[in-house]
């Protein structure tokens, strides 16, 4: 929940200009602005190669759901991605595995790419159950919506709850690879790519991209200011290319 319309427009214009200058070879950039600036940002970034997503969408196409926004509406506003199941949505707005599953199905039904967020709280980490906890979240999200490799147009963002936010602790490489290794073995044929998010910044992105099974990064507050986002993109582009890249629109 950041940026007025003018702030979002300035950010998008600066991003588009740098994209034309550098191209960031091997990197697919995307942004997920607030609903109020979604259409504006999509218009500024049209043709730039930077993808635009929505931070949420309802599972129904229309109806008596005051305050909600549907997948057809965000698509009409220019979104090609839909972020689903972020930990803040789960924690503060009663998002459940069932609503995540319905939103994934709705997003796929309209030809957009779901970006499903999964991640465990700190107590699960302490108990040594991270991989199984996150695997159960993803299984629930894909159930009935993605049953075969032909349906594999879902992106997954692994964001440990204990690693995100102002006071998050950066995850160690083995903590990331342990969870993503299990997810890759169980869901690799049904998922187009695995991103990692959690205290990712310009000084950590290169080593994060070197972790096995990390296809990309999902960045929060480090990318709120344009210089920070550009620095992350520059660093990612200069990192060694991965053999496997997410399949995006």
Automatic annotation (TrEMBL):
UniProt keyword list: Cytoplasm, Gluconeogenesis, Glycolysis, Isomerase
Organism: Ornithinimicrobium tianjinense
Subunit structure: Homodimer.
Family statement: Belongs to the triosephosphate isomerase family.
One Gene Ontology MF term: triose-phosphate isomerase activity
Protein name: Triosephosphate isomerase
Catalytic activity: D-glyceraldehyde 3-phosphate = dihydroxyacetone phosphate
Subcellular location: Cytoplasm
PANTHER family: TRIOSEPHOSPHATE ISOMERASE
EC number(s) recorded for this UniProt protein: 5.3.1.1
GO biological process, one term: glyceraldehyde-3-phosphate biosynthetic process
Catalytic class of the enzyme: isomerase
Major subcellular location class: cytoplasm
GO cellular component, one term: cytosol
């Amino acid at each position: 929940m950041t940026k007025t319309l003018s702030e979002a427009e300035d950010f998008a214009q600066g991003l588009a200009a740098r994209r034309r200058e550098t191209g960031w070879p091997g990197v697919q950039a995307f942004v997920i602005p607030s609903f109020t600036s979604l259409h504006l940002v999509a218009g500024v970034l049209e043709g730039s190669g930077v993808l635009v997503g929505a931070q949420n969408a309802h599972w129904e196409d229309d109806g008596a759901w005051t305050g909600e926004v549907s997948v057809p509406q965000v698509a009409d506003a220019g979104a090609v991605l839909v972020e689903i199941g972020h930990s803040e949505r789960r924690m503060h707005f009663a998002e459940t595995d069932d609503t995540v599953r319905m939103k994934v199905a709705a997003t796929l039904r309209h030809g957009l790419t779901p970006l499903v967020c999964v991640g465990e709280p700190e107590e699960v980490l302490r108990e040594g159950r991270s991989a199984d906890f996150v695997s159960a979240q993803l299984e629930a999200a894909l159930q009935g919506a993605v049953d075969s490799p032909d349906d594999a147009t879902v992106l997954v963002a692994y964001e440990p709850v204990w690693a995100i936010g102002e006071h998050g602790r950066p995850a160690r490489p083995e903590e990331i690879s342990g969870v993503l290794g299990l997810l890759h073995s169980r869901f690799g044929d049904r998922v187009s790519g695995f991103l990692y998010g959690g205290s990712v910044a310009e000084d950590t992105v290169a080593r994060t991209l070197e972790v096995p099974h990390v296809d990309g990064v999902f960045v929060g507050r480090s990318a709120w200011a344009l210089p920070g986002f550009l620095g992350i993109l520059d660093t990612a582009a200069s990192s060694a290319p991965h053999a496997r890249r997410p399949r995006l629109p």
